[in-house]
Task: structure prediction
Amino acid sequence: MADTLRIEGAVTPEGPHGRKPRRALSRRNIMIYGVLLLAAFYYILPLYVMVVTSLKGMPEIRLGNIFSPPVEITFEPWVKAWSEACTGLNCDGLSRGFWNSVLITVPSVLISIAVASINGYALANWRFKGSDVFFTILIVGAFIPYQVMLYPMVIILRELGIYGTLAGLIVVHTVFGMPILTLLFRNYFTSLPEELFKAARVDGAGFWGIYLHIMLPMAVPIMVVAMILQVTGIWNDFLFGVVFTRPDYYPMTVQLNNIVNSVQGVKEYNVNMAATILTGAVPLAVYFFSGRYFVRGIAAGAVKG
Result:
């Protein structure tokens, strides 16, 4: 065989072509993976300390080595955090706060997503007089600090007769979640092909027909994004829970604060750690099971428009 190949008069040496493959342990890869491992260690280490501390008894904790695994695993701190720890005058643990948080989160998420999706659909596809002004007001409302609105909201809820109740807190979370969710839905519906909307109009479909049969089925990715944002935001909320409810209706985060910051009795660090993990379990599970859908929803149009 000849040492060279002739292609249309050109002389080309034999052998592989293209870029030379990079080494697996190149300087660039070492830097990238080193930074990623450092960031992972930074976030995992506190969680590790919390878990191992929650599985230890107080005598073992008093030895002072917070990084060592438990010599004798005990789930008593978890049981006490859930059903026996004092969160003020009540000593029934976090169980009551958990169900309060569920009763607050579920309707707040459903109502805010339903209303915001309709708002976003109307602003994207149905141009009406004053729509730009309405959208501008919503955008401004999304960035107003919550503290500015606390006192006016207290007055409004008091006049409605729902201050200090779960219903009042649901209204607050729904109202404050509306602006940013409306922005997400509006941008998402704007990114969809306008021909779908026009074709439906030509076929005689009205406002609700287009929304229910065309737009809503296509909005599943952005609904997942909205759900994750609302669930984590509402479940982790402390400020609204302590301002707009009374002790019987405190959400889980407020009860956690009462447990951790209690000034009576002995500081039970294992119970505090177990209570913290229990409180964060729901948003952690939401992120774990829905994280990839969150990325898909963002990529599908959540930041377009």
Notes: The chain is about 70% helix and 5% strand. Residues 238 and 253 are 6 Å apart (CA to CA). Residues 269-302 form the longest helix (34 residues).
